[in-house]
């Protein structure tokens, strides 16, 4: 979505930079930023959004974002994540509920008075202006004097290592360079909140990964609050303090990256975050968080009960490919084992990815490190695989 006007880049934050953008904060400043994290800075309270008055694309959203936090809204297309970002930016209006920024209700506050920086996927740079003019123009609109404008522009460009391009026009820059300029423009006002709508989606894989670390580094150095929207799981896991996984207008799970990957709370999250094996079955025994699951092919395995409650209930057992072993000496203590047949093995450089026929499905995946002496499996080979029971999570049916 394009920025409707340059006012969306303006901020009512303090005129002076809290930190020199091209310098690391001193120890005392770093402690101050760390201590501020955790205080609620952005709050969605029972927020709903409908475009036609009937269908809700965002359903009763309640979400608190801490000051200084990097929160990613992750989900498939149409899940409601971008709509939430646009409501926070002021480009869309909530149908119901309230959005608060630093305790202030902002539903009726226009975008240019919210004090928010914005970075778009398509950069939204003025093609007829130089890089310096792109960054200086909105400061000029605010009535800022030339000396301060020049200082702010230089600091922002140095921060993204683009100072020598100040006199170039956007058409003379690569996609990655344009994205750096867009990022500098969003930060030139020293906003306390920056929104990013799939900002790296147009970049190639290598540059995208490099920019992920650059953005995360800037966030850590400046201590700003970032709300980031993406459908890229790896991007979210790499950059975020917490991730809100959206589907069908609701948050399915909100957690730090490791917790989200290791302990998914439902089948959607397990299948959407990373690669996952899903074995359908029925709960045969249930004691606390321990479940005995009879798979559809008749086999029985142990699993950790997550969001199932009753014996006889249908379930999907989730197992990450890297937690599966086939060498007896590598089996974890108390591992459950099951017969498998090798369908094929794919060489992926650092890992070997084996596709197995397990419990009536030939899409079960096992990942093995590509180390010296690693046993080379062959298609058609019969093996016995196993995993620790805590790595098998009994979730709702897919």
From TrEMBL:
The keyword Ubl conjugation does not apply. This is Spermidine/putrescine import ATP-binding protein PotA. InterPro entries: AAA+_ATPase, ABC_SmlMolc_Importer, ABC_transporter-like_ATP-bd, ABC_transporter-like_CS, Mo/tungstate-bd_C_term_dom, P-loop_NTPase, PotA-like, Transp-assoc_OB_typ2. One of its GO terms (molecular function) is ATP binding. It comes from the Bacteria. Belongs to the ABC transporter superfamily. Spermidine/putrescine importer (TC 3.A.1.11.1) family. Its EC number is 7.6.2.11. The complex is composed of two ATP-binding proteins (PotA), two transmembrane proteins (PotB and PotC) and a solute-binding protein (PotD). Part of the ABC transporter complex PotABCD involved in spermidine/putrescine import. Responsible for energy coupling to the transport system. Coiled coil: none annotated. Keywords: ATP-binding, Cell membrane, Membrane, Nucleotide-binding, Translocase, Transport. SUPFAM superfamilies: MOP-like, P-loop containing nucleoside triphosphate hydrolases. It catalyses: ATP + H2O + polyamine-[polyamine-binding protein]Side 1 = ADP + phosphate + polyamineSide 2 + [polyamine-binding protein]Side 1. It is an enzyme of class 7 (translocase).
């Amino acid at each position: 979505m394009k920025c409707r006007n340059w006012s969306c880049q303006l901020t009512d934050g303090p005129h002076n930079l809290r930190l020199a953008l091209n310098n690391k904060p001193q120890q005392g400043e770093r402690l101050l930023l760390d201590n501020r994290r955790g205080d609620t800075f952005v709050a969605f309270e029972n927020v709903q959004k409908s475009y036609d008055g009937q269908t809700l694309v965002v359903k009763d959203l309640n979400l608190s974002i801490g000051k200084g936090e990097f929160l990613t809204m992750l989900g498939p297309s149409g899940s409601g994540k971008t709509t939430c970002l646009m409501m926070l930016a002021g480009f869309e209006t909530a149908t119901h509920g309230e959005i608060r920024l630093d305790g202030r209700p902002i539903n009726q506050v226009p975008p240019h008075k919210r004090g928010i920086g914005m970075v778009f996927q398509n950069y939204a740079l003025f093609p007829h202006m130089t890089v310096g003019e792109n960054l200086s123009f909105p400061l000029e609109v605010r009535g800022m004097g030339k000396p301060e404008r020049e200082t702010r522009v230089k600091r922002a460009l140095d921060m993204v290592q683009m100072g020598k391009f100040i006199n170039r026009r956007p058409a003379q820059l690569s996609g990655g360079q344009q994205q750096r300029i867009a990022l500098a423009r969003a930060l030139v006002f020293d906003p306390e909140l920056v929104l990013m709508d799939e900002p790296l989606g147009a970049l190639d894989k290598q540059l995208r990964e490099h920019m992920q670390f650059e953005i995360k580094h800037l966030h850590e150095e400046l201590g700003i609050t970032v709300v980031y929207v993406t459908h890229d799981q790896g991007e979210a896991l790499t950059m975020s303090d917490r991730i809100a996984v959206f589907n069908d207008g609701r948050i399915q799970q909100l957690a730090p990256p490791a917790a989200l990957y290791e302990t998914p709370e439902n089948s959607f999250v397990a299948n959407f975050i990373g690669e996952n094996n899903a074995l359908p079955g029925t709960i045969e025994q249930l004691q606390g968080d321990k479940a005995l699951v009879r798979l559809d092919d008749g086999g029985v395995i142990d699993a950790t009960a997550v969001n199932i409650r009753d014996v006889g209930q249908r379930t999907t057992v989730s197992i990450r490919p890297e937690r599966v072993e086939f060498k007896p000496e590598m089996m974890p203590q108390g591992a459950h084992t099951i017969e498998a047949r090798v369908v094929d093995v794919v060489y992926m450089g650092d890992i070997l990815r084996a596709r197995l026929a397990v419990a009536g499905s030939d899409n079960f995946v096992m990942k093995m490190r590509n180390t010296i002496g690693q046993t080379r499996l062959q298609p058609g080979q019969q093996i016995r695989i196993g995993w620790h029971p805590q790595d098998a999570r009994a979730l709702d049916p897919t």
